[in-house]
């Protein structure tokens, strides 16, 4: 089974089994407080999924133990995003199991595509859009699903001033899909499909998309007139 | 029960510290510092520090386990700094510590960084005698504490009302055109200088200040005085004299107030901690004036004075030995955690 963790928007933790069945889904929509809730949500998800607290590497199909941790790598506001990545890595270290990094927008895209498949909606190009603070959005454009059941990125995650987004999406011919949550169950599902296909689909480092914003000090400030 | 085996995680500022202790025995003190990344900015940049913590945590934990020969499943508990410190930096350690504790099914202890600095002294192998006055000086804090009991009774006597002493060193170094971090640079420059060449102000030391701020510190006025002096000086700047006189002003006020607290409370013991203790002049003056005042001054080795995870593990080991219950999983980063909160979010006892 896979433990999915994402803190790119709110805090979401889920356990998904090898067949893609969601065994536990614990989320907090609070855009703050990631550090406060992360431990409780992981503990609750494990309990709900009836996971044994054993150690060691196990098979993906093992339905009593966690064999992988899927981590949402962003984009997302940095302070919160880091909490989930740090937690995913530490949990994996504790169990001696691997981390599978997933682009957080991929999870939202996968959810949209699964829904579309159910209503036999024709494939439309769409963009997953999340708040990046500082009057910017983060967006990623998708073109349907590939043979492995994973969303196909037409553009990589990027930042754009809020006022410029709609013009940019019109230019790309993409429908706008604003996401206010990133479900960890879909992070887990994307990871499970990537593992099944033997593919690596996410970056190993957090998707900050922005340098730490600091200004280099100018010379000494004048203090006297 | 045998002495508790604890792994401590410290990420309150720019050092990613992982420590492993068994009771009061130090097994590993692994530190990864992002100091070099801050050098070009002339001070710690919180976002740079937090990013570095995320990258350094896992390798540091692995290095500490390798050094100590401890396996994660053998741990009795995980400990983490919950404050005070930089909120975004603290959160990285908290996220990791909670997940590690849940992953291993081990208890978690969330502890106070400042009290951790005092616990560091336990790991030196010498018996610590209480009560003691403690002076903690770093780039992030300047605090004077009265420690009656490490796990139950720590009182804040005073602290800086503006810059931390380490920050003052960094800012004055920049004024003098010296690189970051300022402490060692000022020290080097001061080596050939006259500490009495310029009489810089001692913050909050006037009779009128001593009423309300007897044990508080202020370094921003001193920094301004140095800036003004250098601006108004004609001719080549006597960098060595300015550095030595500035350093003397900082050291003088730190030691004077710490020894005043020892005298006022009738406690003839002073413990030093924090990265600025690396400053040899501060150590020398504290030892010399302490001896003259009949105060025993204790200075742990520098690797235990700077921010580190061993002191966090050490404090948790004391809490465990004294019968304290683990913390719940519901606590966050508290950038201004008061020193009276030695442990955060202790589980409520089940009757
Ligand atoms: Zn410190």
TrEMBL record, chain A:
Transferase as UniProt keyword: yes
Keywords annotated in UniProt: Acyltransferase, Transferase
A GO term, aspect molecular function: tRNA N(6)-L-threonylcarbamoyladenine synthase activity
Pfam families referenced in this protein's UniProt entry, alphabetically: TsaD
Organism domain of life: Bacteria
Xref: Gene3D superfamilies: 3.30.420.40
Signal peptide: none
EC number: 2.3.1.234
Residues annotated as domain Gcp-like: 34-142
Name assigned to this protein: tRNA (Adenosine(37)-N6)-threonylcarbamoyltransferase complex dimerization subunit type 1 TsaB
Highest classification ranks of the organism: Bacteria, Bacillati, Actinomycetota, Actinomycetes, Micrococcales
